[in-house]
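In keeping with the milestone schedule agreed at the kick-off meeting, the structural modelling team has produced records for the first pair of proteins. Each record is given below as a sequence line and a C-alpha cell line. The laboratory manager (R.T.) confirmed that both were archived under the project's standard naming scheme.
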Amino acid sequence: MSGETNEAMKMNREIAKGVYYVGVDDHHTEIFENLWEIPYGVSYNSYLIVDEKIAVIEGVKGPWSQEWLDNIREIVDPSKIDYIILNHMEPDHTSALPDFAAIAPNATMVYTPKAAAMQKSFYDVALKERTVSDLEEISLGKKTLKFVHAPFLHWPETMITYLVEDEILFTCDAFGSFGALNGKHFDDEIDMDLIEKESRRYVSAIITSYFKFVQRGIAKVKDLGIGIKVIAPSHGPIYRKDPLWIVNKYDEWTRPELEKYVTIVYGTMYGFTQRLAVKLKKELLNLGVDVKFHNISYSELSNVLTDSVRAGVLVIGTPTYDAFPFPRIWNFVNEIKGKRFPVKTMALFGTYGWGGGGVKKIQKMLEEMKCEVLEPVVRVHARPTSEEEEQVKALARAIAERVK
C-alpha cells in the first residue's frame, strides 16, 4: 500500500488528532445474539489513540480479528500497543482478545474489577492487567483517559472511557445502534432516519431490562460536568455533528413515562383470533386511539418489542393451543417478564376450540407480574356472539379511556 493511500485511509478514520476508528463491519451475521434480525448488518467499533503511550479502546468479535488488526497496522504496529481498554467483556467486544494478545504481548488490559474475573473465565490471556476504580485516570502523555463505572449498561462490569483533552466519550453499548457503517463512520455522513429506527430497535431488544441504569448513567455523566464533543459507542455511528442527539433519544426511549398509543400483539392459527384483533383495532381507531399491530408469527420480535415496551396499554391476543397459550405469545409474555417492561397496563382477548386455557393462563401470569389487566377479558369460543362483540367494544372503550 502506498504512503499516499495509507494517509488517506488514516484521515478517513481520524476522529481527533491521534484518535482513529479501527473497527469492523459484520455483514455475515444475520441474527444478532441469535435472537435479533440485523438486515443492515452491525459494526464492532474499536478506537486507537496514538500518543507517547498507545491505547486501543474496545476489541471486536473473534471472526473479524484479522481485519481489526490490519486496520490497526495501517496506523501503528500492534505489538507497540501499551493498553487495551476493555469497557465491556461481552464476546462481541472481546472475543478477538486471544489473537490480539498473541501479537501485542506487552500490552496491559485495563478494565473494572468485576471484568477481571470474566476475562479469566472467558479467555485467561497471558497479558498484564490493571483494574481501575471509578473516575481513575491513566496518562498516555499529552492525552488522559478517565474511566467512569457504568454498571448494568448493560452488564455489571461495564465502564465508559472519557478522553479528557479531546472531550470524546467512548460509551460502550450505551448509545449504540444496529447497522454496519460501510466506511461512513460519522453522524454527518449517514441516513439518520435509519439510525433512529435501528437505534430504537437496538435499545428495545438489548437494553430494555436496564432502562433505569441508562437513566442513571446519563445523570452520572451530566453530573461530572464534562464537555462532550464526540460520542463514540461500540456499535453504530460516531456522533460528532450533534453528540447530544443520541443522548436525548436514549433519554426519551428509557424514561418511565409511557407513550399514548396502544399495541396489539396476537397469535392466530386459523384466523379466529385475528378477526377479534382486527375488530378491536377498528373500535380503537374509531375512538381516536393510535394503534400499533403485530401478528407474532410474522413480525420480527425486536420490532414487536420496540412497539410494545413504551405503549400506554399493551393488548395481547391468543388462541388456546393444547390447553395452553399460543407458544409464540407465551414466549412474548416471558420476554415482557424477563425484560421488566415498564408498561404495566394490559388487556387480553382470545379464542378457543374446546378447552379454553390460553387466555386464563396468560391472565394468571400477568397478574403474578403485578400487571393490571383491564376488564372485560374477552374469551370467545370460535366465532364471537353478539354479546361477545359488545365485550370487544367495551374493552376498546376501557383501553381508550386509560390511554387518553
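The second protein of the pair:
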Amino acid sequence: MSIIKTHQVILHGKTNQFNITLKPLCDEHLPLLYKWCADPDVLYWTEGGEDCEQSYDKETVHVIYGSVSQQAHCFLIEVNGDAIGEGWLQKMNLPEVIAMYPEKCDVRRIDMSIGEKEYWNKGIGSEFVRILVEFAFTIEHVDVLHCIFEDYNHRSKRVFEKNGFTLHHQVNLPPMQKGHFEYHYVLTSEKYFNQKQNFLFK
C-alpha cells in the first residue's frame, strides 16, 4: 500500500535561468524526502517551534506526507531535470482558519521546501508559488489561498508578496519560539483575476 497518495497533474514554469517542472510526488521520491527532512538547515525554514536543531526520521516523514497527500496535490520540484524540493496545494487543515470563511468556501494553502540548498535564493520559490496560484484559481477553481509562515521567514514573505498575497492578520507566538509572529497572507480568486486582467491591459 502506498504511503503518499499521488495524482496525475504535471505543471511547468520557468525563470530566466531555470526550466521548472512540478511532477506528482509519490513513494518513489521518499529517499529524497528522507534526505531533506533530516537536514536541520532545511527544516529551520519550514517548521515552526523552538529555535533548535531538528531532524525527522523515516516514520515521521511517512506520517507527514501520508497525511497531507490525502487532501492535497503534492509535487516534486524539478529544475532543469534535477529534483531540488517539494511542495503542495492543500485543502486548509486548520479549524481556526476554516472558521474565518463561509462554510462552502474552498480555502487552500501552499507550502514548499527547497531541499537542495544551492538552489536557495534563485527565484525558484517565487515561480513555484506562481505556478500553484495559477493552477489553484484557473483549474481547481479555489476561492481563497490562505498561506501561513513565521516572521523570521523573510524569504516566504517576499515570495508571497511578489505573487499578490497581502497580510490578513498576524498572531503573537509564545516565548522561546524562533519567530515573534505568525503571519497569515491571503489571495482571493477575485483579486487574482483582477490583477491578471490589469496586467494584460497595461
